[in-house]
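Hi there,

I know you've been waiting on this one. I reran it after we fixed the sequence typo, so this is the corrected version. Both the input and the resulting structure follow.
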Amino acid sequence: MISFVASVGASLLQVCQVIGRSGVFFVRILGWGSGFKAPVLRVIKQVHQIGVLSLPIIVVAGVFVGMVLALQGYYILSSYGSQEAIGQMVALSLLREFGPVVSALLFVGRAGSALTAEIGLMKTTEQLSAMEIMGVDPLKRIFSPRLWAGVISLPLLAILFSLLGVYGGAFVAVDVLGVYEGSYWANMQNSVLFYDDVIKGIIKALVFALVCTWIALFHGWNAKPTSEGVARATTATVVQGSLAVLGLDFILTAVMLGGF
């Protein structure tokens, strides 16, 4: 019994240590107390690496999620004689939930894992240590540009995801299922509110972007300098990032709806 309590206590202490280290790491990346630490040109380069190269999966997923939402929604709403409200359902589902959440999950799987593997490889080959020896700050040159690039990229990807989903839903509802086009777009315009739906969805995406990029960079920085260590860190990024997105989505939704 004593050994079990001791092992549980050691595990809790280790978790607290990792949380503390990640918090200090995050504060250092932000550069609080020492000014803005991310060169603009490097941020732009990382936006291309993180955001632009993620476009194919975002485009394909956005279109098909919108098409599936329209298809499922049509058969549910038609049983109540409300199939003309399918545009409203597709738009609100995408803007409030599917756009930011699915984009963040895809972002973690594609860009987050790549960031962790890249940083972990730099640590394994001692590139980060070499920069410190040469007087180059790795936080300014490597970590900060990637953090801010993630914060910039994910909200834009979420907006594009929702936009393409709306048009994918319009294709299925109007062209395939025969819903009146005017009703599809009119009901959508009458129901979607800029602040309550669009802005709150963007806020969710911003929070997801900050947390997911932070997790990816920390696991790369904290990875053991071996091939197995980098593999474990990459897996941890995807798992913890995905769980963080789902948990934060519930909290943010409850706060925005006044549940808390």
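Quick highlight: The chain has nine helices and no strands.

Best,
R. S.
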